[in-house]
Amino acid sequence: SLFRKLNVFIIFLFTQFKVIIIYYIPIVYFFIYFLAPPDEGPRISGGQDRYKPGDTVNVNCTSGRSKPAVQLAWYINGEQVNSSYLRGPYTDYVGREGLMVTTLGLKFEAGMQHFRAPGSSGHQQHRNRLDRDMKLKCVATLGTVYWKSKEQSALAHRPRPSAGLPLPAAEDVLAGGDEQDADSRADPVHASSNSPSIYTAQSLNINEIAVYVSASLFIVLLR
């Protein structure tokens, strides 16, 4: 019959030819990402203890070794700096592990607006303005797993006065001015009462002169 002929034909095909059956298996790729946070906080270098308006502030913030590279940010008195103040960031690879060190520079000209009073109370606001300071802070972050900061403070520059001269007013130092106080007065010059060539109205008056002359004439007449 026809069924037997087909069955024989199929058996013939399996015995004479190799049958290859292909199975499509979906392939899944797994990426293993290693995160290595820094083993130390950021470091600030190049700063000074004191600045005055007009000085150039040039400092660097360097992170610890990490993978991937950390993100650095600069703050002045708690406010994030303008991007025009920044230099970098620069990333260097260190070691065979491929860890990275990031450096972010900060460079700007110090002004009065960069110095703040040491407190907010009324008494402290009226303190000497030379007590003002400038706080520089560098913050290093790596996603949500790492956050550390480093802070550096600098005081307003206090000039060293000459011998015998008073310290100039704080507002003159911060503003760069040298104007004299409007309430200052020159000390009056006093002549010595022992000087024979100087006579004042307090030492002699008309009545005393008349008595002296009368007494002198009386003595002459008695003689």
Automatic annotation (TrEMBL):
Which keywords label this protein? Disulfide bond, Membrane, Transmembrane, Transmembrane helix
Q: Which PROSITE patterns match?
A: IG_LIKE
Q: Where is the Ig-like domain?
A: 42-80
Q: Does the record carry Zinc as a key word?
A: no
The cross-references to InterPro entries, in alphabetical order and at most eight, read:
CD80_C2-set, Ig-like_dom, Ig-like_dom_sf, Ig-like_fold
Checking Gene3D superfamilies in the record gives:
Immunoglobulins (2.60.40.10)
The UniProt transmembrane annotation reads 6-35
Q: Name one matching Pfam family.
A: C2-set_2
The record's section on PANTHER family has: BEAT PROTEIN (PTHR21261), BEATEN PATH IIIA, ISOFORM D-RELATED (PTHR21261:SF15)
Q: What is this protein called?
A: Ig-like domain-containing protein
